[in-house]
Amino acid sequence: MTNICDRIRRVLRDLGANHTDRGFRYTLIAVKLVWETEDNLHPVRKKVYDVIAKREHCHPKAVESAIREISRKAWKFDQAFFLNYEASLLAAPSNVKLLEILLRHLHDTTERER
Protein backbone atom coordinates (compact mmCIF):
# COMPACT_ATOMS: atom_id res chain seq x y z
CA MET A 1 0.00 0.00 0.00
CA THR A 2 1.24 3.44 -0.89
CA ASN A 3 2.38 5.86 1.81
CA ILE A 4 -0.44 8.26 2.82
CA CYS A 5 1.68 11.36 2.05
CA ASP A 6 2.38 10.06 -1.45
CA ARG A 7 -1.33 9.44 -1.97
CA ILE A 8 -2.22 12.94 -0.80
CA ARG A 9 0.45 14.46 -3.06
CA ARG A 10 -0.93 12.52 -6.01
CA VAL A 11 -4.50 13.68 -5.36
CA LEU A 12 -3.39 17.31 -5.00
CA ARG A 13 -1.41 17.12 -8.25
CA ASP A 14 -4.37 15.45 -9.99
CA LEU A 15 -6.43 18.46 -8.91
CA GLY A 16 -4.01 20.91 -10.51
CA ALA A 17 -2.03 21.88 -7.41
CA ASN A 18 1.72 22.04 -7.76
CA HIS A 19 4.36 21.43 -5.11
CA THR A 20 5.53 25.01 -5.71
CA ASP A 21 2.13 26.39 -4.64
CA ARG A 22 2.42 27.91 -1.17
CA GLY A 23 -0.53 25.93 0.14
CA PHE A 24 0.48 22.55 -1.29
CA ARG A 25 2.58 21.59 1.74
CA TYR A 26 0.07 23.06 4.20
CA THR A 27 -2.79 21.14 2.59
CA LEU A 28 -0.74 17.95 2.58
CA ILE A 29 0.02 18.33 6.29
CA ALA A 30 -3.60 19.26 7.09
CA VAL A 31 -4.99 16.19 5.33
CA LYS A 32 -2.40 13.99 7.05
CA LEU A 33 -3.29 15.43 10.49
CA VAL A 34 -6.97 14.83 9.92
CA TRP A 35 -6.32 11.37 8.43
CA GLU A 36 -4.47 10.43 11.61
CA THR A 37 -7.16 11.83 13.93
CA GLU A 38 -10.45 12.86 12.37
CA ASP A 39 -11.24 14.69 15.61
CA ASN A 40 -8.83 17.32 14.26
CA LEU A 41 -11.24 18.33 11.51
CA HIS A 42 -13.74 20.51 13.27
CA PRO A 43 -11.69 22.59 15.64
CA VAL A 44 -9.66 23.20 12.46
CA ARG A 45 -8.01 26.41 13.63
CA LYS A 46 -6.64 24.99 16.87
CA LYS A 47 -5.95 21.44 15.76
CA VAL A 48 -4.74 22.07 12.21
CA TYR A 49 -3.84 25.67 11.37
CA ASP A 50 -2.07 26.34 14.67
CA VAL A 51 -0.14 23.06 14.50
CA ILE A 52 0.98 23.69 10.92
CA ALA A 53 1.84 27.33 11.61
CA LYS A 54 4.03 26.38 14.55
CA ARG A 55 5.73 23.65 12.54
CA GLU A 56 6.24 25.86 9.47
CA HIS A 57 7.11 29.06 11.39
CA CYS A 58 4.27 31.19 10.07
CA HIS A 59 0.93 32.61 11.20
CA PRO A 60 -2.22 30.43 11.30
CA LYS A 61 -3.98 32.94 8.99
CA ALA A 62 -1.26 32.33 6.39
CA VAL A 63 -1.95 28.60 6.58
CA GLU A 64 -5.70 29.15 6.26
CA SER A 65 -5.27 31.49 3.29
CA ALA A 66 -2.84 29.20 1.47
CA ILE A 67 -5.15 26.18 1.85
CA ARG A 68 -8.05 28.32 0.59
CA GLU A 69 -5.99 29.10 -2.54
CA ILE A 70 -5.43 25.38 -3.13
CA SER A 71 -9.18 24.84 -2.81
CA ARG A 72 -9.91 27.56 -5.39
CA LYS A 73 -7.26 26.28 -7.77
CA ALA A 74 -8.47 22.68 -7.48
CA TRP A 75 -12.10 23.76 -7.97
CA LYS A 76 -11.19 25.62 -11.18
CA PHE A 77 -9.16 22.64 -12.39
CA ASP A 78 -11.68 19.84 -11.70
CA GLN A 79 -15.13 20.80 -10.43
CA ALA A 80 -16.44 17.33 -11.31
CA PHE A 81 -14.18 15.76 -8.67
CA PHE A 82 -15.78 17.90 -5.95
CA LEU A 83 -19.32 17.56 -7.25
CA ASN A 84 -18.90 13.79 -7.17
CA TYR A 85 -18.56 14.06 -3.38
CA GLU A 86 -20.71 17.14 -2.71
CA ALA A 87 -23.26 17.74 -5.47
CA SER A 88 -24.61 20.91 -3.84
CA LEU A 89 -21.37 22.88 -4.16
CA LEU A 90 -21.73 26.07 -6.20
CA ALA A 91 -18.20 27.39 -5.65
CA ALA A 92 -14.84 26.26 -4.35
CA PRO A 93 -15.28 24.35 -1.09
CA SER A 94 -14.39 25.88 2.25
CA ASN A 95 -11.18 24.62 3.79
CA VAL A 96 -13.03 22.23 6.09
CA LYS A 97 -15.13 20.93 3.19
CA LEU A 98 -11.96 20.53 1.08
CA LEU A 99 -10.39 18.43 3.83
CA GLU A 100 -13.59 16.38 4.25
CA ILE A 101 -13.75 15.66 0.51
CA LEU A 102 -10.08 14.75 0.28
CA LEU A 103 -10.49 12.43 3.28
CA ARG A 104 -13.53 10.75 1.75
CA HIS A 105 -11.62 10.31 -1.50
CA LEU A 106 -8.65 8.77 0.33
CA HIS A 107 -10.96 6.43 2.28
CA ASP A 108 -12.77 5.43 -0.94
CA THR A 109 -9.54 4.69 -2.77
CA THR A 110 -8.15 2.81 0.23
CA GLU A 111 -11.22 0.57 0.19
CA ARG A 112 -10.77 -0.09 -3.56
CA GLU A 113 -7.09 -0.98 -3.08
CA ARG A 114 -7.92 -3.72 -0.57
**Overall mean pLDDT score?**
92
What's the helix count?
6
Terminal residue distance = 9 Å
Number of strands: 0
Largest sheet: none
Radius of gyration from CA coordinates: 13 Å
Secondary-structure element order, as H and E? HHHHHH
Helix proportion range: over 70%
Shape: globular
Which class best fits the helix and strand makeup?
mainly alpha
Low-confidence stretches: none
Strand content: under 5%
Characterise this structure.
- With 114 residues, this protein is mostly helical.
- 73% of the residues lie in helices and 0% in strands.
- It has 6 helices and no strands.
- It has helices at residues 4-14, 22-36, 44-56, 60-77, 79-85, 95-113.
- Helix 1 crosses helix 2, helix 2 packs across helix 4 (60-77) and helix 3 packs across helix 4.
- The longest helix is centred in the C-terminal third of the chain and has 19 residues, at 95-113.
- The radius of gyration is 13 Å and the shape is globular.
- The mean pLDDT is 92.
TL;DR of this structure?
The protein is mainly alpha-helical. Helices cover 73% and strands 0% of the residues.
How would you summarize the topology of this molecule?
Layout: H1 4-14, H2 22-36, H3 44-56, H4 60-77, H5 79-85, H6 95-113
Helix pairs in contact: 1-2, 2-3, 2-4, 3-4, 4-5
Salient structural properties:
single chain, mainly alpha, 114 residues
